[in-house]
Amino acid sequence: MGVQISRILPKKEIEFRDLSGKTLAVDAFLWIHQFLSIIRQRDGTPLRDSNGRTTSHLSGILYRSAKLMENDIKLVWVFDGEKPDLKTMTIEERKERKEDALKKWKEALDLGNMEEARKAAQMSSSITGEMIEESKKLLSYMGIPVVQAPSEGEAQCAHMCRNNVVYSVASQDSDSLLFNTARLVRNLSITGKRKIPGKNSYVEIKPEIIELKSVLKELGITREQLVILGILVGSDYNPGIKGIGPKKALKLVKTEKTLENVLKKIEWDYDTPAQAVYDFYLNPPVEDVELKFGEVDCEKITKLLVDDHDFSQDRIDKVTKTLTQDKQKSLGSWLK
Q1: Residues 6+ apart with CB under 8 A from 252
Q2: Other Cβ atoms within 10 Å of 105 Cβ, number
Q3: Domain spanning 220-282: which CATH class is it, in words?
Q4: Which of 155, 143, 184, 158 is nearest to 80 (CA)?
């Protein structure tokens, strides 16, 4: 879910060319969840190979990464590590929602309601250990660095951006701003369109960049107060305070200034202390990393996708040909 504060954040639309030559840290789990949710058949069934193994994540990783690489955008995929104890309740709630969605998916299929079946199916996806390992393999075969975070992937992404290892974090969630990233790029898809829920129509979506410095200046708050704002609205570590949305939270934070003062004005009826959530955002477990970009290994990509998972040989050949051509064009800037 992440912190739902994006509508009050100052942002600027950009083009893919504005990111040319730049390195972005990807929140791997969020992107893979997107692929598992979106890349499905009409009845909601994910893409599968002849052995019944899900391949939606591999398809998404290949085509989105290849398209971005074609635009000379360098990627680093960051995977979540050990989940913090603070997230236990959120994980349990997500598990219950997925089980409920799975039940609704089956019911909709029995009724022949394909639209409802697909909608429910999109909410039922889960990432398995096998998917994670296969994703890492494919990325390495494409020459893309993989970083294993000690804890939250977005915290690690933010740490890398803050230390100029990457230009920006690429994620739909705003959590990386609370984790102190300098920049956040949203809507980094390859279609440029997003389906309107419940309608057979689409809206044009362009990438947008959010800079922490501009956020704090325009909202008139500090980074610490931004964390308090996120806690009030609700995060992956605590439910939001009933009746408090982003605008009301901003007003409260600007008036009361500190977490201690804010807590005097609200009812905190949760087992997780607000101070613990606050401290985690300010000091999450992260590690310094050195990035190493590799070469595209067409043979290994083909073996994994075509031989092992029944992808089309022609389609994979087209992608690998494009990847190797792009690598030759920008070899100097890519292997830095």
Answers
A1: 232, 244, 262, 265, 266
A2: 22
A3: mainly alpha
A4: 155
Cα–Cα distance, 272 to 279 (Å, whole number) = 12
Q: In which band, very low, low, confident or very high, does the pLDDT at 148 lie, cut at 50, 70 and 90?
A: very high
Single-letter amino acid, residue 205: I
What is the distance between the alpha carbons of residues 122 and 37, in angstroms, rounded to a whole number? 4
Domain positions in the chain: 1-219, 220-282
Torsion (CA) 176, 181, 182, 186 in degrees, nearest 10: -30
**188 membership: H or E segment, kind and range:** none
| Cβ 40 vs Cβ 122: under 8 Å | yes
Residue type, 25: A
pTM: 0.87
Which H helix or E strand runs over 308? Answer: none
Beta pairing, strands 146-148 & 12-13: unpaired
Residue type present at position 13:
E
Sign of CA dihedral 324, 325, 329, 333: negative
User: 63-116, pLDDT tens digit by residue?
Assistant: 999 999 999 999 999 999 999 888 876 767 777 777 787 777 777 777 777 777
Compute the distance between CA of residue 154 and CA of residue 169 in angstroms, rounded to an integer.
8
Listed in sequence order, the residues at least 6 apart from 44 whose beta carbon sits closer than 8 Å to its beta carbon are: 105, 108, 109, 114, 117, 118, 119, 120, 121, 122
What kind of architecture, by CATH, is found in domain 1-219? 3-Layer(aba) Sandwich (3.40)
* CA separation for the pair 69, 26 (Å, rounded): 13
Q: How far is 289 from 148, CA to CA, in rounded Å?
A: 10
Closest C-alpha to 228, from 260, 256, 259, 195: 259
Give the DSSP H or E segment for 133.
helix 129-141
